[in-house]
Amino acid sequence: MGREIDTTRFKARHFNEFARRLQQETTLLTEWAQSGRFSGRGLVAGCELEAWLVDRDLQPAPVNEALIKAMADPLAMPELAQFNFELNTAPEPLIDRALSRLEAALNRTWTRAIEAAETLGARPLTIGILPTLRAEHLSLDNMSGLKRFQALNQQVLRARDGRPLKLDIVGNERLKGEHHNVMLESAATSFQIHLQAPFERAHRLYNAAIAASAPMVAAGANSPFLFGSDLWSETRIPLFEQAVEVGGFNEAVRGPLRRVSFGSGYALDSLVECFTENLQHYPVLLPMVFDSEPERLEHLCLHNGTIWRWNRPLIGFDDDGTPHVRIEHRVLAASPTITDAIADAALFFGLVEGLCADDTRLQARLVFAQAKDNFYQAARFGLNAQVVWLDGEKLAVRTLLLNELLPLARRGLLAIGIEPLECDHYLGIICQRVEQGQSGACWQRAFAKRFGSDMQVLTAAYAEHQRSGAPVHTWSL
User: Fold this and answer.
1) What does the buried/exposed string (b/e) look like for 449-461 if buried means 16 or more CB atoms within 10 Å of the residue's CB?
2) How do residues 285-336 score in pLDDT, each as one tens digit?
């Protein structure tokens, strides 16, 4: 979905031709897997940080086009709403002091975003859901001008036969409503972690990412409020699932799969299974036909970009043109600080490596249905969630993190060659966050409980803490 398209007008012939090319490219992908064509390069890390733009009154500021122009940085790009944008890091080999390098790179781009925003009378803010956001901000007038966003809105509504999107989230409070475009999606911003891996073990890392999703979202929750209502610790999860609520083929064997979901199961032999599922179970949403060779997989990648699994497999290419696979871990909210974000990334990299140990037998010891249930429990209750872990062990997610997963993550990071001091620094931040019970969501709720539900006051205090750069577990009320 990162690539711009040329038109928003599609006819039946475009859908038919796109489907033909998608079939061709999926077959080619399968052949590459069977012939060992994929890159054997070691682990490579990257991340995407989505952010808000707010004005002096901490209301959404729809100026991302001017911001991107002022930054003139290929690592910065617009998001769906004009008050959102995205910052990326270049790929970083996951070894030695990779985590520090990722933090430094993201901080440099973030500083340029702050400087550019100041010239526009705005400031960037990273938080899962902006507390001052109101439903009226989510109008088509505030949609970014790229054609792919316009086309997405049109095609989602077409797939729903024009029916409005329904919002119904039950948390500490209940929020119901209807929305007539996909701008609801722009109410949620995230920190997405990328991990490129050798093809032969990428599916095991993907399965580990699925299992790790519950403790990850519990530790990193930062989205408790939407339109002033206190909902889930990570309200982004139900919000995004309802904001693009479109299913797959009605006649599919397993029934219509949702386009935003936790997925349908673990990968058994390779990540190609996910792309085969894309072909078989999801109708074409954006039938942009490209004038390119099948080997570029442009239709396969665009189609995959319209299916939002919380852990999404991606296809890319190394600098020499060799295809590679990577995992996009999408469960985390935009973080309170850059340091918090990289600490979350450290936990993720360490956990998935640790859960891939030969003696773990992950799929047998944590069935997919339980991993899925854990995820939604953690998204709703955050650090107060109860989960069922390996071999049916029931325990509090904080206990699981402190006693089992943080030590496991440290062993995983050491196994892939991260320096011990790096491990201790970043995992120490997670440890203190969990011990003190203060994630971003916890801090926001505690602030609102003490000072009242004025979302502008809360946002102002949050923004000042974020400006300091200190991780969220150190924030005072």
Assistant:
1) eeeeeebebbbeb
2) 999 999 999 999 999 999 999 999 999 999 999 999 999 999 999 999 999 9
State residue 93 phi and psi, 5-degree precision. Answer: -55, 130
Q: State the amino acid at position 181 in one-letter form.
A: N
- pLDDT tens digits for range 234-250: 999 999 999 988 877 76
- Residue 225: enclosing H or E segment and its boundaries? strand 225-226
Distances in whole angstroms, Cα of residue 159 to Cα of each of 244, 288, 360: 10, 16, 42
* Cα–Cα distances in angstroms (integers) from residue 110 to residues 41, 88, 186, 322, in the given order: 29, 10, 20, 31
Asked whether the beta carbons of 102 and 93 are under 8 A apart, the reply is no
What does the angle CA 165 – CA 170 – CA 176 come to, to the nearest 5 degrees?
A: 35
Q: What domains appear along the chain, each with residue ranges and CATH number?
A: 40-142+160-247+310-469 (3.30.590.20)
Cβ atoms 49, 334 nearer than 8 A: yes
**C-alpha radius of gyration, the chain, whole number:** 21
Specify which residues 174 forms β-bridges with.
Answer: 170
Residue 317 exposure: Cα atoms within 13 Å on the Cβ side: 11
Query: For the purposes of burial, counting CB atoms within 10 Å of the CB of 167, is it exposed (0-12), middle (13-18) or buried (19 or more)?
Result: buried
**DSSP notation for 39-69:** -----EEEEEEEEEEE-TTSSB---HHHHHH
- Could you give the residue ranges of the DSSP H alpha helices within 291-356? 298-304, 338-354
Which H or E element spans position 316? strand 311-317
Return the half-sphere exposure (C-beta side, CA atoms, 13 A cut-off) of residue 146: 19
Sign of the dihedral defined by the CA atoms of residues 154, 160, 162, 167, in that order: negative
Query: What's the CA gap between 117 and 55, in Å, rounded?
Result: 9
* Stronger pLDDT, 193 or 246, i.e. the higher one: 193
Per-residue pLDDT tens for 56-80?
Answer: 999 999 999 999 999 999 999 999 9
Phi first, then psi, for residue 44 (nearest 5°) are: -130, 135
Q: Which amino acid is at 323?
A: P
pTM over the 0.85 mark:
yes
Between CA 365 and CA 331 the distance in angstroms is 22
Q: How many helices (H) and strands (E) does the chain have?
A: 16, 16
